[in-house]
Amino acid sequence: MSDRSALKSGSGLSDPAPGARGSRPLFRPVVLEVNPHRVELHTLEPHLPWVVWSAQNLPQPVYRHGVLRLKYLLGRRGVYRGTWDLRARPFEQREEYRLVEDLYQSLPEYRRSRWYQQGLEVIGAGGVFTHKTEAARDVAELDALFEGYLVDLLETMAREGYRQRPGADLPEAMIGRDGTLIKTAHGTHRLASAKAAGAAGLFPLRVIGVHRRWLAALPDGGSEAAVAAALSEIEARYREEAQPVAPRRINSAIPS
Questions:
Q1: CA–CA separation, 235 vs 205, rounded Å?
Q2: Taking the complete model, does pTM exceed 0.70, yes or no?
Q3: Which of 31, 119, 121, 177 is the most buried if burial means most Cβ atoms within 10 Å?
Q4: Mean pLDDT of residues grouped by 10 in the chain (256 residues)?
């Protein structure tokens, strides 16, 4: 599920050392396996607000060939300045979590959930309800989307904990200036499902970037060994026991 060899070898930081004069630090993504109930904060990735604005307001050629390229160039080193970590908010205040938690509490009567009712409203207005690559244009397709994907995800999470699906991207996170592990893009609904269902076991988070101040505060000028030790400490801290939602018995029979 995760690249343990990358962490053990001290990967995460690449040469040159960030303290060297004239150098720019580089952080390579590392996968940490943590207790999902320990991950409490969420923030938008640096640069994401203006990327979203650009997608909505600029011509598509400019967005595709200019904005996305600039975002890649700004983020490719994985070390960020700014206040993105200070803007983090409780994960459970996010609408994604609230919808997932409400759905879980409604089982097996998933049609009573607020999420399903939203889908009915979209379809009733002549629209298409979508989630990821799934789409529903009528009630039958909406039922299939919930039963075959959303409800199944929650039930599997409650029974077995997190399971990485072949070909699926890994949930992502970043490390703030004080060493806080903060959820960002990808896998938001999966983390919400793990939390809502009281999933046991470990949850993978691909750390795609860190705050420059965190890196600068490490010993030895933020050497590769210091980064590896700091990442190991963060992983151990976020593996500690938390108080998950007590999983309740789910009647697996889907109502007709």
A1: 10
A2: yes
A3: 119
A4: 40 46 73 96 78 66 63 68 94 96 97 98 97 94 96 95 89 96 94 96 95 92 90 95 54 46
